[in-house]
């Protein structure tokens, strides 16, 4: 049965989204009439060369940017017209982020970085431990909780970022070039972890990437070029 027949909205829907930037007198069209539907539980990659619009599209879904025209909906609710405070509150409760540059707070330990979102959500200490301790075990960093970012490798920092993203119990995890700064072995291990969590917990993952390893592991690959969707492939992996 199709979505239209079932009446069920996709988890994420992008409708005719355009994003135009102005750099001085130059107009840059980062997205050009993009339409996209992503179902709950997908493990998807937005693929394309630098400047193709994949990070801009990811930022639209994550309420980090707004379309010039068109709209973005999550579970049928328009999120693209939210105010800054509404968008911040929405991100806090619904979306986990894994960034290329890790975005860990340098003065905080791995544990403090991971619990930061939960603290903002008002989660108590005992519950924070019940959520985060198993995740630190899962990513192999149970003995690294007291280390600060500069005391960890890039792969270890990215794993802390994954714990932070998943610890907030989001419906959606958005990962922007998460393997860009990692060696191939670390990248493979990180992707395996995220694939397992996708399978076990049903968390929806959307990556922006040009890494062939990520593209090969994705169950769906949406290809962008010059701000347009130019391909959409679903496959069994």
From TrEMBL:
MF annotations from Gene Ontology: ATP binding; ATP hydrolysis activity; transmembrane transporter activity
Transmembrane feature ranges: none
GO cellular component, one term: plasma membrane
Superkingdom classification of source: Bacteria
Keywords per UniProt: ATP-binding, Nucleotide-binding, Transport
UniProt xrefs under SMART domains: AAA
Protein name listed in UniProt: Macrolide ABC transporter ATP-binding protein
Gene source species: Lujinxingia litoralis
High-level lineage: Bacteria, Deltaproteobacteria, Bradymonadales, Lujinxingiaceae, Lujinxingia
């Amino acid at each position: 049965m199709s979505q239209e027949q079932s009446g069920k909205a996709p988890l994420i829907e992008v409708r005719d989204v355009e994003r135009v930037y102005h750099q001085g007198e130059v107009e840059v069209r980062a997205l050009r009439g993009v339409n996209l539907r992503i179902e709950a539980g997908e493990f998807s990659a937005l693929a394309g060369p630098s400047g193709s619009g994949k990070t801009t599209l990811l930022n639209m879904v994550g309420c980090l940017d707004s379309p010039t025209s068109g709209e973005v909906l999550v579970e049928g609710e328009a999120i693209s017209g939210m105010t800054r405070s509404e968008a911040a509150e929405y991100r806090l409760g619904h979306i986990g982020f894994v960034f290329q540059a890790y975005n860990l707070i340098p003065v905080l330990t791995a544990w403090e970085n991971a619990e930061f979102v939960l603290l903002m959500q008002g989660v108590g200490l005992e519950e924070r431990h019940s959520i985060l301790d198993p995740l630190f075990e899962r990513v192999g960093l149970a003995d690294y909780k007291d280390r600060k970012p500069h005391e960890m490798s890039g792969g270890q920092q990215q794993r802390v970022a994954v714990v932070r993203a998943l610890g907030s119990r989001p419906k959606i995890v958005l990962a922007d070039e998460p393997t860009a700064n990692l060696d191939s072995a670390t990248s493979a291990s990180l992707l395996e972890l995220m694939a397992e969590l996708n399978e076990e917990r049903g968390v929806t993952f959307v990556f922006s990437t040009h890494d062939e390893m990520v593209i090969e592991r994705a169950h769906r690959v949406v290809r962008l070029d010059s701000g347009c969707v130019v391909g959409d492939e679903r496959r069994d992996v």
